[in-house]
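A quick aside before the break. I want you to see a complete sequence-to-structure record at least once, exactly as it would be stored in a machine-readable document. Don't worry about memorizing anything.
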Amino acid sequence: MRAAAFAALSALVFTTACDTSIYDPYPQDGGPAAPAGLTYLVDPVGTGTAPAGILLRWADDDPTVYEWDVYARDSFGASFSFRGTTRSPSYHDAGRPFLQYYVTAVDGAGLESAPSATVTVDERLALAAPATLASVSLDGAVALSWSDNAYTADPAAFSNYRVYGAGYDLDAGLCGTDWALEGTTVAPEFVVGALRNGVPRCYAVTAVSVEGYESLWSPVKDDTPRPDARNVLVYARQAQDAGSGFRFWQDLDGDGRADADELGLPKAGSSLSADFSVERDPDGTLWLQPVRSGTTVAVYGATPSEDLTSIDYAPLGGYATSAVEAVPGWGYVFEMSGGDGYARYGAVRVTHVGQDYLILDWAFQTDPGNPELVARR
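That is the input. The structure line, written in tokens, reads:
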């Protein structure tokens, strides 16, 4: 259905009946036929205000035509004025579009045709803005999704969505002014990739009609990509000391950055540098025990987490140094000292618990003090 709506881009025309008494110059006897099939497409600019220009197109079905002349007027009842000449069946008029346009054909002898049908640039055809915007933080990327109300309200009028991004000052809680187009999509979702982990950004989405009119912005969301990993095996310390501990991040080279080889480090469970170890109780259950000084843990939520991406913000409280039982499907958040006055946050979701080891997914927020682990809704 969306492909059909997208194809309608070149077929949708808004015309008014021709009143040749208002045109100048008048058509000349013996000239070419009036151009047919005049359509327009405005240029979206990302602000939800006036378009940046307009592209006119029409049929090229008369071999006697040498060139075409374009005319426009800015209000009903005003005289049309000459805008320009083109030798292709299209014309781009930069700047805010005029209210109405028509085109005439000119043959090699200089004879001009009657005017084409008039197109009226109707900004009321703009779609509604996406009503909601949600995000999921990924490793070096952010997955965006939004309500599809612009499409469902009128599928035939819908063309595509445009996704915008800008920098974000986490401390001030303000988006930057460097908004730029991230991409377009016909689906109500988009993955922004090639991002630097730990760097917050703002996002917004608009809906574009088949005529090119751009809606107002969706709600603006900020999100921060962060490293994660899946299916990590950690032994119980009582079964094997090596690999029974885990460190979310350790600045091994002292540059203050979370480099790829400094994330998700296996440790001995007996090492005091591990963020946590896996301990086996005499009854056979496995537990997550905070180890490193300044590290605490809290169970995430009151029910199991469907996925690692379901663990969004680190809880405000409830952390403790005591161990928590590792239960398949449940999520856990660790608050750790960063040594610089800012806390660091990491999350795990246990996927399997055996006798001698467990398997977990993990995520870590490299932005100091940022409690956002996965999703921003």
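Two observations worth writing down. Helices lie at 2-7, 149-153. Confidence is low (pLDDT under 50) at residues 1-26. We'll return to this after the break.
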